[in-house]
Amino acid sequence: MSLNRKRTLTLVVASVFLIAWSLSPQPAAAWGPGGHRVVANIAFDRLDQATRSNIVKVICKHPDFDDRFAARMPEDIKNGNAADRDRWIFLQAAIWPDLIRPVHQYHKETWHFMNLPFFLTTHDKAVLHDVIKPNVSMTLPNPLTPAAKEHLNCVQAFKLCVRGLSDADSTDEEKAIYYCWLLHIAGDIHQPLHSTSLVTRGRFHTSEGDRGGNGIKIKQGRNLHSYWDGLLGGDQSLNDIKGRTADIIANADLKKAAEKAAEELDVAAWIQESNKLAKTFVYDEPIKKEVAAREADSSQPLQKVVLPEVYLKEAGRIAQRRVAEAGYRLAEILKQIEDN
Question: Is the Cα torsion angle 21, 23, 25, 31 positive or negative in sign?
């Protein structure tokens, strides 16, 4: 088989996998388990051995470690080398906040996103700007009460995790939970639809808007949000994650973007980048046109939007760039915490 035919076959298989995965029932979890593990794997590779070991030792003291780490570790990892076990545990920590969604003791739904409003028209903005009240604060509440912690957005939650991990009074069990959330939220913030929600007068007129694309039906998947979540794939083996990571970092443009991104460690800037992508690319014209066409009668269901081929290709490139940027930035944040 020629090299071109092999590449074509690979692209076809990947496309079929992506569509099948996005159509299957999955929770809204930025990038899916594959994407979150890629972000964590990129960060892991950029840490020195001492930092890796220190973080993994803390994660091993997680109060949920037996059920959602040890019990889920594949046999080949369990019986393999220590380096792969540490890497697997680190990557598993990045998906833990999605694994415990039904467990309110641990899970905080709003920690995954921020609903920066994207108004469909200037008239929508004029009417709703002072009516809807999404939590778009970039700072932690003061006082930070237990009730306030329940409703933090992703930027606030990320800052809480950094604070908790830097606090000498935090227990190892608390730090283990903070590490899991930190690794996870770093990925969430870089997914454009975890930053933004479409707001309109007729249909999406609450603080949640369209819930980051969850309200937009598309032909290529269940909805716009799940499509973007699935761009890096679902559950994959450690070797598959290593290979996917290597391919991303081997791309000179993606690596250059990630290196530049690592110079910007203000988490508020990260969410603004995602918001800009959502407004300028993710909510493409066919999407806005379909929503606008049915604003006069919001009782009508939205029709499934066909995303153009050029959109699908560019979305894949953006997703790869964003996970690379997230991984590089996450590594720098972890280094800073370790140095404190």
Answer: positive
